[in-house]
Amino acid sequence: MLRKMYDWVLQWSSTKHAVPALAVLSFAESSFFPIPPDVLLIAMVVAVPTRWFHFALVCSIASVLGGMFGYLLGWQFMDLVGNRIVEFYHFQEQFDKIGGWYQEYNAWAVAAAGFTPLPYKVFTLAAGAFQINFPVFVGASFASRAARFFIVAALLYKFGPPIKVFIERYFNLLSIVFFVLLVLGFVLLKYVF
């Protein structure tokens, strides 16, 4: 199923609607959708390397706007919508821990989620539900999401198509590695913070 979703996302990279699709995907992933925008960003930068900066900027802005939407869902609609999203991903225990992290670390918890493979959508919902400072949330989100997407796009611009071939060839292995990194991210946050 993950591979089918990945292929579906990639098909957008070769259409004239690639940039709007990137914006929609980036927005949706920040609040509820499971596939990260990096997949489409990678394909688009490989296809048109000279637009790497533009693609990373669109991805960053849309992701932060999606994070703001996730914050709104957590703040005003947690009972109606937010809890369903948390339950869908089986993140209730992590959601509760995130609330504690926000109490102690505020912007650092947002930045960690925005840059690492941690599920950013859970952090955006939790930020609203636990009502962390909104300007701090937006600033930390933009700094971390922009850093992530600009680094990915710049590396692809520099190293080009071989990266895409590598991803295609080792997709299953990379999916497992990504999942392990996700789990390790939670473990790291649990024990380091």
UniProtKB/TrEMBL annotation:
GO terms for cellular component: plasma membrane. The keyword Electron transport does not apply. It comes from Nitrospina gracilis (strain 3/211). Keywords: Membrane, Transmembrane, Transmembrane helix. This is VTT domain-containing protein. Pfam families: VTT_dom. It comes from the Bacteria. InterPro entries: DedA_domain, VTT_dom.
